[in-house]
Structure formats: structure tokens, C-alpha cells
# Entry
Amino acid sequence: MEKDYEAYYLKDFIYFALKGWRKIVLFALIGAVLLAGVALYRNREQEVPVVSTESIEEAEVELTDEEIAAIREKLIADDTTVIRHNKRIAFLRENIGIISEHLSNSVYLSLDPDSQPLGTFSLEIVMNNITNENDEIIEQRHLLLSLDYLRSMRSNAFYTHLGREIFSSVTGDNLRELVEVNLTADGSIEFEFTGPDQGFVRKLSTAAQEYIFLEAENQISFSYPHTLNVIDENFQTVKNPSISQERQRVESQIEKHDLELQSTIDTLDKYIEEDLETELELELELALEEKIKAQAEAEQEEVEEELAKSASVPLYTIGGLLVGVMIAVMWNFYRGASAGKLLHPADLARSIGLLYINEIFVPAEESKDKQRFASAIDRWIERRYLGAKLRDAEATEVSAEYAASVITGVSENREDSDTSVYKIAALSTEDAAVQMALAAINQAAELNGGKSFELISLADSMSEVAVIDALRATDAAIIMVRPRETEMQSLLRSLEISQELKKPLLGLISVEVINN
# Structure
């Protein structure tokens, strides 16, 4: 029947579990002792066998091809002679690649030595002596300008301009070897161009002259007055045996590097096969011993793990603790939910349509058990469960004065106006905290302008006949409950008796005890 009026929240189940912490400790210890005893019983005759390396050797453990290759590679990689030869081999291969690429892509080396297109012109720098300086100063300025123009004609910007203007894929070093710029004894700059054909050569010459007059003339460091003239421009086809000689020199260099590379590789292979073979055998023997030892240790660990899994005392002990805790928690849930105690007076009042007046906090009685550790834990659990209620709790006198004012207001419309004191039966448990709250309410009623009502305690420990007789002598009734202490069955029976006697129920007051 009480389940129709009472609902449980998550914090209630947490309270049920923690309230029975003694059972949790007891059940956990019992579970740990029982399962530890089972583990010890199972392990009483078991011994850990020892796996020896001799037994592993009899099984003819061998190194795999991958392991042998790995040991060989590590030995080779750590040898200083091998490292030196490898670096030389890498250097030679890199040089052969660079020279071979130059031989394949060089435009100059691909020219016909008997018919080389050639274009030349000279850049004449004429000084303008508008300030009538002496000849020595003019010569110095002329030399400085010549060197400045020569620097500009050999810069990256010059060759970038040439590559952009001739619309050709010939760039970088391949373009630089087609152009030669030199300073002559008289201070003029001589340009020489070559290429696959005369059209290409003329494009280079035109692009060079554009650079001189459009960019170089405006970028020089010295601003001495001067005039630039292009003279002796000439295009012809000549014989140039140096092209064949250069090609032969490059090919000879490649062949020389290739011979040295092959010799270095042969020397390295011979060193690895002869000098490192003995060291490799020693490394393989050590590796085989390490593998046998590792396998013996692994098998020993497997044996010990199997024995530990069969009956591990610590594991069984922890398992027993957990099982005991789970059983105790479930038992506490069941006992708390089936105890039939009232937990939430305000919810009960709303469900039966009864006025919930307020909650009165009274101090707990002094107890000899207060200083004990277990009692301290119980008080801590109670305080955590009450939580916000304790933070907002008012003094007993303040709460009692409010309850008295509410009862006075509710009882003002009584039918028996001749009775000076309105007798109200307080239906409650026989509890010291409830009696303290009753006394506080009666005292507050006397202090507030005279005693208009009197609360009379009717404890549920009285016989039902005595309760009925006492209730008939009163004018109304009020319910006073102790959360977690008042039994729902007794409370509902008191409500039924009040209804049968047609005594008006003025409301419900909750009494809570504060344990400091």
C-alpha cells in the first residue's frame, strides 16, 4: 500500500547502500577470505617447473634467413671500413650522374667542331669629360665603369634575361657555356655567342644588347658621364677543335670515375666476404644463444602465467572482495526499499492532498557513541544525504514559531468557538525529537499572544483503543513524522482512524535531527 505514496530517487539508493557500510565491509571480507582459501586449496600441491636452455638446444633452434640477413646488415652498417667505402661509392655515383647529365644536355658539347656558329660584338665605353678632369682621373673612372658593366654582364639577372628573350629551353649552366664575356686591355667588353645555328646566335646577341641599354645602363653603381657603343658586330661559322677536346675530356672523366667506382665496389665486396666472415660467424653464434635463452625465458613465463591463471591468490582475493561488495550493496538496496519507512514527507503530503506545514530541525541527544569511528561515519553519511536541507536549515525556535503561526491560522475557523484552547492531537512516533518539536511549537504558541491551541502527543506505541479514545477528546489532528524513521503502515493507519472519527487533519510537519 505504501508504494502508492512513496517514490525513490537515485540519492535514496545511494543512501541505502552507504547506510549499510558495515554489511559491505563484512561481506567483502567474507568473500575475500573464502575465494583466497579456494585459491590456496587449488595451489597446495602445484610446483613451478623450470625450463632449461639444454632442453631448448635439443630442439635444434635455428636462426631464420631474415634474422641472419638482419645480423649481417647490422654488422656491415656498423663497420668503419664499410662506411668509408660506401661514402666513396656514393660520391662517385653522384659525380658520374652529374657529369653524364652535363654530357647529355650540354648544347655546347653537341656543336659541330668543324662548323660552329659564332657571333661577336664589343661594348665600347666612351667617357664624357664635361668637367675637364685630368686624364688620370678619367682613366680611373673608365676602369671602374668597365668593371661595373662586366659584373652586370656576368650576373644571374643577365642570363635570366637571355633565357626569357630567346624563348628556348636552354637555361642555367647550359646557357652560360654558350656566352663568353671578357674585358679587353683597352677597357671595352667583348661578347662571344655560340649555339646550334646562326638564328639562335643572333637572338642571343640581340637580347644581350637589349639588356645593356635597357637594364644594365640604369643599374650601374657609378654615375660618371659616358656613352655606350656597340662596335665590331660579326656573325660567322668557324672551326673549333676545342669542342671535341672538351667532349673527350668529359667522357674520359666519366670513364675514370666509373673505373674507380667498380674498383671500390670490388674492394668492399672482398672485404665483406673475407675479413667480416669470421666476425659474422661469432655474431651468429651469439644471436643463436640469445634466441635460445629468450625462448627458454618465454616458455618459463608461459608456465608461470598458466599457474597464476589457474589459481592466483591475489586475483581471487580481489574477486572475493568485489563479489562481497556487490552482494552487500544489493542486499542494502532491498532492505532499504522494503523497510516501509517514510523518506519524503513533502511528496506524501502532496499525494494525499494534505498541507505540508514545514520541517523542524532539532539537535540530536548527546551519546556516548558519538566519538566512535563508526558513529562518525554514520553521521557523515546522514549529512551527505541531507545536503541542501542542512545548508538551508533554520533554528528550532524559528521553525517552531512558523509552524505555530500556520496551525493558528488553520484553526481560526473552528466550529466550537466556546473552547478557549483548541486541542490538537499530534499523531507521531514515540520519539524524543518529535517530543522536543512538540514542546517548541506549544511554547511558541504561548509566546505569540496567548495559547490558542495545544498539541497533544499520541504516540503510535499506544494501543489502537487508547489512541481512538484520546483522539475523540480532541478537536483536530496533525501528523508529525520522522523521515527514515516513521513507518508508512503505522502512518496510514493513523490517517484512517482520523477519517473514521471525522477529525480534520490540519497538516503534516517533518522533524529532522541534526547530528553535529
Observations:
- The chain is about 60% helix and 15% strand.
